[in-house]
Amino acid sequence: MAIKKPKTTSKKATPVKRAANKPKKLSGEVFYPSKQVIAEARLKDWDKLNRSAKKDFRAFWEAEAKELEWYGKWKKVLDDSKKPFFKWFTGAKVNIVHNCIDRHLKTYRKNKLALIWESEDGKEHRTYSYYAMNREVTRMANIIKAMGVKRGDLVTIYMGRVPEIVFAMLACAKIGAIHSVVFGGFSVDSLAGRIEDSQSKLVITCDGSFQNGKIVQLKQIVDDSLKRCPSVENVIVIKRVGNEINIETGRDHWYHELLEQPIAEGKCETEVMDAEDTLYILYTSGSTGKPKAIVHTHGGYMVGTYSTLKYVFDVRDDDRWWCTADPGWVTGHSYLVYGPMLNGATSFLFEGGPAYPEPNRWWQCIERYGITLFYTAPTAIRGLMRFGESWPDKHDLSSLRLLGTVGEPINPEAWKWYYRVIGKSKLPIIDTWWQTETGAFMITPTPVVPLKPGSGTRPFFGQEAEIVDEQGKPVADDTEGYLVLKNPWPAMLRTIYKDDERYVKQYWSKYPGKYTTGDSAKRDKDGYYWIIGRVDDVLKVSGHRLGTAEVESALVSHPAVAEAAAIGLPHDIKGQGIHTFVMLRAGKVASPEVAEELRQHVATHMGPIARPEEVKFVDKLPKTRSGKIMRRVLKARAQGLPEGDISTLEE
Ligand code: WTA
Q: If you average pLDDT over every residue of the chain, what do you get?
């Protein structure tokens, strides 16, 4: 399909908080889109598209799919004959990389910037056009192939925020290999567990990464992990920080040396994949046990991420998109790497964090690169709020036209600060609710939807949500219940890697025919959804998804610990902080030093993001008669709340 350069305007939105297009009167505090926002929006009539997508969600998704290029057409848009093992665009041939890169090379976008990168210290800048992106991805794909990686093989990627992480993901996809990215902030236990489960043959890493001016020894962590992971045959190491590292002959290879060899050169055809072939797996914390790998595909995931980003952030050709998430989480996968490139956008990737060396680092980047669309997490906003308005006020943020948020409920104070201080009371705040499992936005406004601070508004086109009680019956408006999704969607997870049974049990068993999200929520009488939080043992710490089970198993791996329980309690900046309860082994004595040692132990084994706020020593943990720790009771006690039903509590 030929791509036409869309018309764009550069006019800015004017103040809002009044109905511009006279939608029906909504209750509560409502921020209506300004005339300007509506005039500029690609999609003006949300209700119309919503109505037609509701009537026939297959037709909606089929039309979206037709905007992309396929090597061969589908026989069926949706095959639900073996639900909940849904299949999308069955029979179609495609490769997501064809649509992220190859297709743009045939248009004016060839010389458009795909990626802008800045180093943590701000001293290095790199830019890649789509043409350059193709060259880098091709070279990395050639190298990965030369390492013996074939279509369907697993590759683990464990890196910092450098352009090569994007190349690595796309290179795997290009040759039909499956990537498994592990967040660079995780440590040995988390990395080893994920490599072991996936049985990766190749690991792509960096010598180290920078974090707030310090070096994270990524390669050392890989070395320690590989002692437990015999499946790995090769390690490719990108030189980033220049620290001393161990290079094991035969196994470890410097990327810059491989690039000089003939194997890197030459064309690399983009592999023709089935729409349903796996694109990647991504480990995420579930309600129990070890993290599980969510499976996403080339075809459906491509259509979902493309379409959602197009409508929700209204991405245009002259935009500069910045999603601050790390590529190691699903937000980075869908909206830093795939979604923007599918839309032919220019993305910014920043190596550092928001407040190093000073709390204006992000605002400086917005000004420096003329960012127009900015997508971040509530925890970051709360963290930056703390430093005051003088930091953003130092910078010209007038390039911005839309703001976004994701990862946890945004509290109204943070919403309003973001709206007023960053958006100058003009820019819509796009609050997107979704999950690793959903692959793409599920409950979200588009720029023309009236907003209520703290609500992700309504489901995306083609989706219907419901709030139900324990038995699955829809609850009344404004009543808390379980959030479920009623329709299948293209970017949905296909299964849990190597565990179909757990997939069915976890997501489709509680309310047959409906997808269980694991979140509790309310719906108000305007049909707006308000997410309350997880109902299971998943924690959201600074927007990062962690499991209580992982923290507990890190604690019990310490020789002094007999048993441990972890819970999440409200935290002003992080959203949730990890609080732990530890029973020591006989003969071990509790002390502040031991508590500190245990906190450090978790940080070393799992990663600094999992460091508990607190370690409390206890003689006993509340358990059910069958021996399960009742975290709910611990949580209630810690907050001085009623303990609820404790009839199953053991004596
Ligand atoms: C929470 C992140 C409220 C929710 C994309 C969900 C949110 C979990 C929002 C998934 C939001 C995500 N408002 N809560 N806008 N976005 N969540 O897999 O509890 O890391 O179930 O995916 O984050 O986390 P995950």
A: 95
Instruction: Report the chain's terminal Cα–Cα distance, integer Å.
Output: 69
Of the candidates 157, 137, 246, 248, the one whose C-alpha atom is nearest the C-alpha of residue 200 is: 157
What does DSSP assign to residue 95? -
Alpha-carbon dihedral 23, 28, 34, 35, rounded to 10 degrees: 20
Hey, what amino acid is at 504? Answer: V
Residue type at position 286: G
pLDDT of res. 23: 57
Distance CA 309, CA 336 (A): 11
Whether the CB-CB separation of 563 and 584 falls below 8 Å is answered with no
CA–CA dist 114, 104 (Å, integer): 10
If one residue of 415, 531, 544 were mutated to test the ligand 1 pocket, choosing by the most ligand atoms within 8 A of its CB, it would be 531
Q: Residue 105, Cα to own-chain centre: how many angstroms?
A: 28
Q: Give this prediction's pTM.
A: 0.95
Distance 529 CA to ligand 1 centre (A): 13
How far, in Å, is the centroid of ligand 1 from the Cα of 433? 6
Q: With CA atoms as reference, report the closest residue to 321 among 297, 337, 301.
A: 337
**Pair 409, 432: CB distance under 8 Å:** no
Distance, CA of 189 to chain centre: 21
Residue pLDDT, tens place only, 301-340: 999 999 999 999 999 999 999 999 999 999 999 999 999 9
**Cα–ligand 1 centroid distance for 435 (angstroms):** 5
Cβ proximity of 584 and 577 under 8 Å: no
Average pLDDT over residues 206-227: 97
Q: What is the mean pLDDT of residues 481-492?
A: 98
In this prediction, residues 271-298 reach a mean pLDDT of 94
Q: Quote the pLDDT of residue 627.
A: 87
Q: What is the DSSP letter of 629?
A: B
Residue 192 makes CB contacts below 8 A (sequence gap 6+) with 224, 225, 226, 228, 229
Euclidean distance between CA atoms 339 and 347, whole angstroms: 10
Helices marked H in 112-263 — which ranges? 130-146, 163-175, 188-198, 218-226, 255-259
Helix (H) or strand (E) holding 465: strand 465-468
> Among 406, 451, 458, 539, which is best to mutate for testing ligand 1, by the most ligand atoms less than 8 A from CB?
406
Amino acid type, 11: K
- Mean pLDDT over 376-404 rounds to 97
When pLDDT is averaged across residues 76-99 and rounded to a whole number, the result is 98
| Residue 229, SS3 per DSSP | coil
Single-letter amino acid, residue 227: K
> Which has the closest alpha carbon to 284: 275, 297, 293?
293
Q: Mean pLDDT throughout 391-412?
A: 97
**Which residues 6+ apart lie within 8 Å of 628 measured at CB?**
none
Phi and psi at residue 217, in whole multiples of 5°? -85, 75
Determine the distance separating the centroid of ligand 1 and the alpha carbon of 519, expressed in angstroms: 9
CA-nearest residue for atom 1, ligand 1, is: 408
Please work out, in degrees rounded to the nearest 5, the angle formed at the alpha carbon of residue 543 by the alpha carbons of 100 and 603: 110
651 falls in which pLDDT band (50, 70, 90)?
low
CB 98 within 8 A of CB 134: no
> Shortest CA distance to 160 belongs to which of 91, 84, 98, 239?
239
The structure tokens listed for 172 are 């795997």
Q: What confidence tier does 22 reach under pLDDT thresholds 50, 70, 90?
A: low
